[in-house]
């Protein structure tokens, strides 16, 4: 069994075992073991990747190829570069943390963990595959369980939210399918056979007209998942209704599929299209960055605040991708990773606060720092990371983006960049507003005087997410150099 | 000479922060105070050793002070553009090391008494260490990006310490305000850095400030709206500096920051962090001076002069003693800025630069003393307000004498440190810009007046009867006061022009007797007026404030600048921008999406015919919705 396919096999085995489990105790142990194995494998993958890179200069390493439908030239092809390795590490850590946070899931635990891990399977499969069709299949596998997870284990207007989320993501994937087929039918433009293989298509000169048509379709198809303005509205409602672990996975991992897909498929395969359309989408991305931040300022529900914050942060990812140079791309990938860990941490903490106080309304909370110090301190740290404090991951990601974006001397890009940079002030406003209202100040409600302290599993989950945030922030050079190398093919393709 | 070991000076406080921060509920208060102080003492010793080595042993080669740089790659943007972390040892960074470690150490000792019994004792020392680490990192920065990184870190330390009493809503609001206002200013700083980087390809101070380097010689090659782009960048960078140093109109956070514990006000909001803006301009002085004939430097001078004046006027009217001191700080930093602003480069022409650094040094001593003295007073009477004080000289003899020394020093009475440094500033201003000189002299008079208003109001004035008899603070608090009182005199006798100059070469500065006489005369008038008004309780102060009428009211309300900001943020940004955005998102963007979804559901309801059961409904809705959306989008983009 090759090293990559294991990332799909292990979750599937975990699911199969889960099916025979009877209660919460057994289900959570099985999930924990399965996802721990997954996380260890992802660490091992980093090591193996560096070893392989020394001797192997291909774009993708650990490539395995199996024919699936010969007639359409559909293959199961997997391979990774620095970017996907980083994404896999992100996913495995967030999933593991999600399992830890759901330790006390009492409602249909077995089914919950199964759905969660099905989602994870889709995510891992998506990141390892380099065949468009396989990728699309995994994408759908990741999106469908979301409906169940929110619809069954959610809270509030969960049916509405679940429906909305699923419909919009399905609409997006329909677009995506059109885009992928468009690419597929043009992959023979140089006289070769039609193919879904990304590496093969990257060698083909797809006609500019086709690129111009299919780039926006593919871009939007993915960008909806990345909460691009104005297709972001599924995300706040979705988050608000979703159970904690699902919000974590959703914001931490699933939304990353969007940015990753935009980069790996839309931009890599349709570079001319990207050049033609970049200005248009830059406008949308910049609106998203600023609009998300401003909308977050007025929200009162913690989850809405973080959902809009995600719109802002992920807008920055799209913005950076569209700046079309190595520094900003590097920043985009780092921002994706950083946002993944950070929001997962935020949602985990919000889940803990909600679980104790039964409200997410910042106006009703207050003085939590005194009552539940660990959770509150971690929330402050996550907040500081989110507003781009040096020493945490967000800062160096944002700086890469800003420096990269500043390499365009024309007025349009300058203005776009300066608006985006200005959003960091608004970010500080909405973060400190929450910290001030919810954590500091006097305890507003006497019922909150004696809230239970964080359990060890909750602590473990949060610390697990904090470590990479600090690690990336303190020693950015390792990660950014690993990603930088993998950007070379993108640069060559774009030039 | 290898100065690599200086990296330890910031790293020791960092280690202590981590140690105390992670174990904050396990370490006993007594132990954490000792750990913090001892650690800082190590840093202090290293800093003094460095200063000795630099100024007296290896720093000067052929009459020119050298710069020593040690750096390591931290992150790379491109192959050539990297962020380094490292230490840069030159005249001003060594001087700042002395200032920061000395004041921080004194504040550590003082806090062991002041914070005794506070439930957040260990946390307090952890934050102090975090701040000291950040400030030292800022001082030692080798490039613009490193200074920006530590700039943000001192900002957050300041946030944490202002909000130290986090259950008090006013402290929380003050902490938020400080962070957001400075962050807004830092936005300018960041954009300035990006511009500098784009046009020069480097962040490195050595390359940027080299008078023969490309950054300085090529300034005329670009232009934007009539000015060199480099000038714009410098103005934006100064915006960051003005925010941190509480210069008008970005000063509004500083008075509120007095909500923090008093030792913090002394350390952060008087002696060290708030002078970071001055340090930044001094660090980039060559750029400011040479680019476009010092256009940006002129702005620095004027912002400094205006801030000095406005702050001094507001300080006349405030009744919270810490706020008077806060405005006094702002006013004195204005002095430092204007001194830099009027400075030239070579030899004695660079007097302003030297005077600014000199004043920074002496000010840090006497202003820290004033704040710590105020802390001792507040400790004794449990109030910040002048009206609750009076006649305290009998109860607090040590605090009284040391406070008097500091007041004399800041008022520029001959023999005290403030006299020497202020005199150099006035000379520099006199030689280069007469209007600014007159403003400075006027401010000197106001300074003497408001300081002695405070002094007489606290220690003389009415003999109040106190519920709890005030008593002198413990030794751990009075010894730091005595030490700083000594420094508030002695610091003036250091020959700064020997050590710190714009062009790295020593020159001889002399007292300018006529100008000194004028300044002293004005200062004495201020003191005498204060004596008449406040030495004994009488009716005069009320009459005077009435005589000034609306000017008094305006100054008392800090010229309503806070209200203007409040209006802009609350009324315009929150109400007119943010709320409509949130509304737009809910009602327009979202409703459009819902509408699409609803229409799909309605359609499927109508056409489902014989189908029954929920699952199929949903499945159908998915597919139909997907197809409809796809078709709409494709249709739009084909057209």
| SSE pattern of chain B, N- to C-terminal | HHEEEEHHHHHHHHHHHHHHHHHHHHHHHH
Low-confidence stretches of chain A: none
The average pLDDT score of chain A comes to 86
Q: What helical percentage do the residues of chain B reach?
A: over 70%
Instruction: Tell me the domain tally of chain A.
Output: 1
Number of helices of chain B: 26
Oligomeric form of this entry? heterodimer
Uncertain residue ranges of chain B: none
Distance linking N and C termini of chain B = 71 Å
Largest sheet of chain B: 2 strands, antiparallel
Provide the spatial order of strands within the biggest beta sheet of chain A.
Answer: 1-2
Topology order of chain A in helix (H) and strand (E) letters: HHEEHHHHHHHHHHHHHHHHHH
The number of E-state strands of chain B comes to 4
Quantity of strands of chain A, as a count? 2
Give the N-terminus to C-terminus distance of chain A in angstroms.
Answer: 38 Å
Overall form of chain B = globular
Radius of gyration of chain A: 21 Å
Strand order of the largest sheet of chain B: 1-2
Structure description:
The complex is a heterodimer of chains A (495) and B (639). With 495 residues, chain A is mostly helical. Chain A has one domain. Chain A contains 20 helices and two strands. In chain A, strands 1-2 form a two-stranded antiparallel ribbon. In chain A, a hairpin with a 4-residue loop joins strand 1 and strand 2. Chain B has 639 residues and is mostly helical. Chain B is 71% helix and 3% strand. Chain B has a two-stranded antiparallel ribbon. A two-stranded antiparallel sheet of chain B has the order 3-4. In chain B, helix 15 packs antiparallel against helix 16. The longest helix of chain B is centred in the last third of the chain and has 47 residues. At the A-B interface, helix 6, helix 8, helix 11, helix 16 and helix 17 of A face strand 3, helix 5, helix 6, helix 25 and helix 26 of B.
């Amino acid at each position: 069994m090759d090293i990559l396919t294991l990332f799909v096999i292990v979750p599937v085995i975990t699911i199969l075992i889960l099916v025979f489990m009877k209660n919460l105790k057994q289900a959570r142990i099985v999930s924990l073991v399965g996802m721990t194995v997954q996380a260890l494998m992802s660490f091992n993958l980093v090591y193996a990747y560096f070893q392989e890179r020394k001797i192997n200069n291909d774009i993708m390493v650990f490539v395995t190829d199996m024919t699936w439908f010969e007639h359409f030239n559909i293959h199961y092809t997997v391979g990774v570069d620095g970017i996907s390795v980083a994404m896999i590490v992100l996913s495995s850590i967030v999933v593991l943390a999600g399992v830890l946070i759901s330790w006390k899931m009492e409602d249909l635990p077995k089914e919950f963990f199964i759905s969660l891990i099905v989602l994870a399977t889709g995510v891992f499969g998506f990141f390892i595959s380099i065949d468009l069709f396989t990728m699309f299949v995994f994408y759908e596998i990741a999106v469908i369980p979301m409906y169940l997870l929110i619809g069954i284990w959610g809270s509030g207007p969960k049916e509405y939210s679940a429906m909305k989320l699923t419909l919009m993501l399905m609409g997006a994937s329909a677009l995506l399918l059109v885009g992928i087929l468009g690419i597929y039918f043009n992959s023979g433009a140089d006289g070769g056979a039609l193919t879904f293989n990304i590496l093969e298509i990257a060698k083909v000169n797809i006609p500019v007209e086709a690129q111009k048509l299919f780039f926006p379709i593919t871009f939007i198809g993915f960008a909806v998942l990345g909460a691009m303005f104005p297709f972001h509205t599924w995300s706040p409602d979705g988050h608000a209704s979703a159970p904690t672990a699902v919000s974590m996975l959703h914001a931490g991992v699933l939304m990353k599929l969007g940015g990753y897909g935009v980069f790996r498929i839309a931009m890599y395969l349709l570079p001319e299209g990207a050049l033609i359309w970049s200005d248009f989408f830059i406008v949308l991305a910049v609106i998203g960055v600023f609009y998300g931040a401003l909308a977050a300022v007025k929200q009162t529900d913690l989850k809405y605040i973080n959902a809009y914050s995600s719109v802002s942060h992920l807008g920055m990812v799209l913005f950076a991708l569209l700046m079309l140079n190595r520094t900003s791309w590097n920043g985009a990938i780092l921002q994706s990773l950083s946002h993944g860990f950070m929001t997962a941490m935020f949602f985990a903490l919000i889940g803990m606060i909600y679980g104790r106080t039964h409200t997410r309304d910042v106006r009703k909370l207050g003085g939590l720092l005194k009552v539940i110090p660990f959770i509150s301190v971690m929330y402050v740290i996550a907040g500081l990371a989110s507003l781009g404090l040096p020493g945490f991951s967000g800062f160096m990601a944002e700086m890469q983006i800003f420096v990269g974006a500043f390499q365009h001397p024309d007025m349009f890009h300058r203005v776009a960049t300066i608006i985006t940079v200005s959003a960091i002030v608004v970010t500080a406003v909405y973060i400190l507003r929450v910290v001030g209202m919810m954590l500091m100040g006097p305890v507003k409600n006497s019922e909150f005087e004696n809230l239970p302290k964080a359990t060890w599993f909750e602590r473990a989950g949060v610390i697990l997410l904090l470590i990479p945030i600090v690690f990336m922030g303190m020693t950015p050079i390792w990660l950014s150099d690993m990603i930088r190398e993998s950007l070379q093919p993108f640069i060559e393709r774009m030039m | 000479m290898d100065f690599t070991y200086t990296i330890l000076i910031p790293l020791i406080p960092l280690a202590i922060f981590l140690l105390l921060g992670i174990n904050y509920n396990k370490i006993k208060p007594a132990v954490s105070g000792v750990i913090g102080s001892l650690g800082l003492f190590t840093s202090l010793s290293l800093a003094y050793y460095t200063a000795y080595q630099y100024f007296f042993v290896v720093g000067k080669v052929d009459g020119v002070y050298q710069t020593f740089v040690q750096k390591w790659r931290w992150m790379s943007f491109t192959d050539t553009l990297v962020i380094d972390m490292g230490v840069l040892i030159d005249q001003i960074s060594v001087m700042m090391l002395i200032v920061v470690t000395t004041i921080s150490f004194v504040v550590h000792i003082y806090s062991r008494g002041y914070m005794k019994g506070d439930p957040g004792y260990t946390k307090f020392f952890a934050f102090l260490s975090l701040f000291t680490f950040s400030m030292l990192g800022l001082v030692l920065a080798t490039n613009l990006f490193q200074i920006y990184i530590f700039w943000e870190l001192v900002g957050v330390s300041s946030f944490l310490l202002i909000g130290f009493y986090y259950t008090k809503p006013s402290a929380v609001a003050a902490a938020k305000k400080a962070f957001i206002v400075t962050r807004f200013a830092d936005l300018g700083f960041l954009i300035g850095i990006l511009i500098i980087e784009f046009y020069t390809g480097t962040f490195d101070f050595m390359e940027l400030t080299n008078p023969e380097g490309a950054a300085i010689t090529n300034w005329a090659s670009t232009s934007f709206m009539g000015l060199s782009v480099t000038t714009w960048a410098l103005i934006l960078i100064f915006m960051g500096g003005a925010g941190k140093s509480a210069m008008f109109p970005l000063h509004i956070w500083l008075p509120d920051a007095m909500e923090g514990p008093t030792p913090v006000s002394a350390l952060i909001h008087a002696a060290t962090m708030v002078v970071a803006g001055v340090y930044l301009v001094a660090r980039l002085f060559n750029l400011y001076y040479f680019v476009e004939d010092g256009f940006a430097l002129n702005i620095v001078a004027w912002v400094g002069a205006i801030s000095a004046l406005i702050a001094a006027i507001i300080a006349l009217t405030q009744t919270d003693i810490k706020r008077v001191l806060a405005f006094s700080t702002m006013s004195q930093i204005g002095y430092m800025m204007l001194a830099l602003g009027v400075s030239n480069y070579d030899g004695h022409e660079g007097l302003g630069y030297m005077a600014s650094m000199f004043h920074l040094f002496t000010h840090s001593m006497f202003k820290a003393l004033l704040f710590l003295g105020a802390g001792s007073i507040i400790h004794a009477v449990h109030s910040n307000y002048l009206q609750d004080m009076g006649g305290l000289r009998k109860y607090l003899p040590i605090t009284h004498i040391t406070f008097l020394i500091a007041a004399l020093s800041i008022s520029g009475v001959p023999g005290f440190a403030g006299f020497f440094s202020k005199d150099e500033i006035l000379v520099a201003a006199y030689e280069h810009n007469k209007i600014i000189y007159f403003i400075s002299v006027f401010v000197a008079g106001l300074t003497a007046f408001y300081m002695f208003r405070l002094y007489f109001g606290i220690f003389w004035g009415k003999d109040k009867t106190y519920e709890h008899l005030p008593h002198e603070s413990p030794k751990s608090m009075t010894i730091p006061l005595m030490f700083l009182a000594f420094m508030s005199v002695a610091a003036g006798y250091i020959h700064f022009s020997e050590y710190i100059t714009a062009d790295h070469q020593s020159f001889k500065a002399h007292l300018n007797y006529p100008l000194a006489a004028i300044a002293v005369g004005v200062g004495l008038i201020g003191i005498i007026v204060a004596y008449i008004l406040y030495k004994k309780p009488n009716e005069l102060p009320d009459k005077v404030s009435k005589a000034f009428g609306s000017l008094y009211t305006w100054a008392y309300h800090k010229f309503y600048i806070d209200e203007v900001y409040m209006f802009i943020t609350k009324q315009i940004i929150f109400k007119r921008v943010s709320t409509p955005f949130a509304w737009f998102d809910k009602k327009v963007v979202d409703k459009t999406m819902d509408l699409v979804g609803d229409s799909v559901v309605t359609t499927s309801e109508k056409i489902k015919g014989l189908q029954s059961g929920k699952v199929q409904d949903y499945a159908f809705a998915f597919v139909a919705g997907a197809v409809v959306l796809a078709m709409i989008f494709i249709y739009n983009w084909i057209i």
